[in-house]
Amino acid sequence: MTHALTPETAARFAEIALGHVTREYPHKLDHVMDGPEDVLGPRALHPIFFGSFDWHSCVHGYWLLLTVRRLCPDLPVCRRIEALADEMLSPGKVAGERAYLLRAYSGGFERPYGWAWLLALHREAARHGDREWHQALAPLAADFADRFHLYLPKLTYPIRTGTHFNTAFALILALEWAEENDDDLAALIRARAADYYGGDRGCPGWEPGGDDFLSSALVEALCMKRVLPRAEFRDWFGRFLPDLAAGEPPSLFTPATVSDRSDGKIAHLDGFNLTRAWCWRGLADALAPELATLAHDTAETHLDASLPHVAGDYMGEHWLATFALLALGAANV
């Protein structure tokens, strides 16, 4: 079975996101308190992105909603998406989100995962020309672009973990935005990706870790596909995973087992499977035919493992549909 994004699935994902982007509690803050006056709840700190258990999940929950509206504009749920986005993605509320970035000790706030998703949300909003969401979000996107400009030159080593700190994943999303909005940032991202990963070879595929939701190996490969010309990427990929046609390393072809979906960290592994599917599908068209077939088949196996579990327990439900949409709509998102 080849999984595809259908209107029914898109509507289901949208309903899931609408159920959490304005759900304030439970909530896990990325918040440094500099005094008792900073003891505040999520809505007081973040006038838009106070839902979805944490700030970054709320950001990409809105990305999911706007993406569904673009891909399936005739769905009835799109009218609710429009009303919510009109209310929440407003200049006044964006000013409140920007004000948070001026607080003491906010330099590392949501770095780099949340930064990248905010840029992705702004890029998606620009595709909705009948609304002013893009204009409202533009100052906040510029703030995070500025942070990338400052951060990447001093990040000597890439962060390769399979969680929010992963450098390659952030570079993928940030580059997509920068190519349309900031040529200097796009050039910086390409240069840093080459510095970080250009010499990598013989990837051992030591993954997943117990709470990964990103495949460090395949996200790196997808990043390099985005920054290198096709022929150069094939050469690089052949050095990076030289035995792929022989099924090595086997870890890259085996979906993660999720033992407890009520455990927020272990539930990350459903996201890991969905990310793997997104990466395999995204890499396939740059690979030789036999490897492309292997990539597509492996993506389907990973989707089989975790697509049924995007809802059910809030530890996964508040974010997994985003990664399912990435995987299913890889050519359109």
Structure notes:
It is a single chain. The protein is mostly helical and 333 residues long. The protein has a single domain, classed as Glycosyltransferase. The chain contains 15 helices and no strands. Helix 6 runs parallel beside helix 8, helix 8 packs parallel to helix 10 and helix 10 runs antiparallel to helix 11. The longest helix has 22 residues. The chain is globular.
Characterize this entry briefly.
By secondary structure, this protein is an all-alpha fold.
CATH class: Mainly Alpha
Taking the alpha carbons of the first and last residues, their distance comes to 22 Å
CATH architecture: Alpha/alpha barrel
Structural class: mainly alpha
Give the biggest beta sheet.
none
Please tally the β strands and state the result. Answer: 0
* Helix fraction bin: 55-70%
Mean pLDDT: 97
**Contiguous runs where pLDDT drops below 50 for at least 5 residues:** none
Please give the oligomerization state of what you see: single chain
CATH structural fold name:
Glycosyltransferase
| Whole-number count of domains | 1
> Which word captures the global form?
globular
User: DSSP strand (E) fraction?
Assistant: under 5%
Radius of gyration: 19 Å
Number of helices: 15
Q: Summarize the helix and strand pattern as letters.
A: HHHHHHHHHHHHHHH
